[in-house]
Amino acid sequence: MRKSVIVLFTIFLAAGLFIAGWQLGHREKIEMAYYAVPMMDERLAHALNKAVMLHLMDSGHYAEVRTMLKAQFNMDVMEVMGLEKNWDASKRETACNLCARMIDYRNEYPSNYISDPALGQVWLDNQVDSYLKKMATSK
């Protein structure tokens, strides 16, 4: 009788562990799928964006490509600005060096960074410019 109780307990324990492992594995698979699909969508969107820019360049529409790249640049800098509070000293130093390099690039061709007031991006351009200058001088 005692052996049958031990065998039954062992069978139930094994079944419980199998079910728990199955559930955890299935949940992890679902979470991976939630992460993988947006990542793939994001990569496809970036690829399409680059394809559009290449098409515009092939068509000779360089001003449109410059406008698209400038908008992406501004949004990337604004995103970095939002993440700044979680940086350690090494990330801050790297960011300061990169911002100084970006300021140097902007100073070489300043007319390329003047926005068209009709597009309504003057405020955004001013925010990006002041952030880059602040970071470049704080190193």
Keywords:
4 helices; single chain; 2 domains; 139 residues; mainly alpha
Query: Strand content of the residues, in percent?
Result: under 5%
Largest sheet: none
> Poorly predicted ranges (pLDDT <50, ≥5 residues)?
none
Our count of domains comes out at 2
**Number of helices in the DSSP assignment:** 4
Helical/strand content category? mainly alpha
SSE order, as H and E? HHHH
Rough outline:
elongated
Percent range of helical residues: over 70%
Question: Average pLDDT across residues?
Answer: 80
- Strand tally, please? 0
Give the termini distance in whole angstroms: 78 Å
How many whole angstroms does the radius of gyration measure? 27 Å
At a glance:
The chain contains 4 helices and no strands. By secondary structure, the protein is an all-alpha fold. It folds into 2 domains: 1-60; 61-139.
Overview of the molecule:
It is a single chain. This protein folds into 2 domains: about 60 residues; about 80 residues. It contains 4 helices and no strands.
